[in-house]
Amino acid sequence: MIFDLVSWNIVLGVLLRTVIIFFFAFLILRLLGKKQLAHLTYVDLLLIIALGSAVGDVMIYDENVVQMISSMVAIGVVGLIVKVINEFTSHSQQMRKLLSGEARLLVVDGVIDEKALAHEDLDKSQLMGVLRLKGIDDLKQIKKAFIEANGEVSIIRRS
After folding, report:
1. 42-60 and 8-32 helices cross at what angle (nearest 10)?
2. Nearest-CA neighbor of 54 among 30, 33, 78?
């Protein structure tokens, strides 16, 4: 039987390593800033990376049954982590803010907040490029502009 081949120490090790690496990667992504997301949440991006790695390793390398079960445990743990995070963020504003981030005001009444721009690791030329793609060619057209939690720039135009 397959389970006779599996050491539960190995399974627990995979579980622990998966949790540690998932949250370490989450921290690194948070530190990189919103512009890295390209319209994904941090959790979405980590889910893609983690599942891609766990699935890819088993598909590419000549694995034995124990390594395949380890990958299955890792995939299950990642799925469970994402489910728990989604549950927490759907019920708690503070958890949503912590895990997903929040919108940051970049432009007010046509004036760029340089400190906010630097905090998001953006420069003025990058912001202006995004604004041009949204049909804004003059900052005076903007009442407010935000960088949303998913990295998208949203604009409230002047009336």
Report:
1. 140
2. 78
DSSP track, the chain = -HHHH--HHHHHHHHHHHHHHHHHHHHHHHHH-GGGSSS--HHHHHHHHHHHHHHHHHHHS---HHHHHHHHHHHHHHHHHHHHHHHHHHH-HHHHHHHH---EEEEETTEE-HHHHHHTT--HHHHHHHHHHTT--SGGGEEEEEE-TTS-EEEEE--
| pTM score above 0.85 | no
**CATH class of the structural domain 104-157:** alpha beta
Q: What is the pLDDT along the chain (159 residues), one digit of tens a residue?
A: 555 666 778 778 778 887 887 777 777 667 656 655 566 777 777 888 887 887 777 665 656 655 667 777 888 888 888 888 888 888 988 888 887 778 999 999 999 999 999 988 899 999 999 999 999 999 999 999 999 887 889 999 998
Encoded tokens for 78: 């990642």
Distance (Å, whole) CA 55 – CA 131:
38
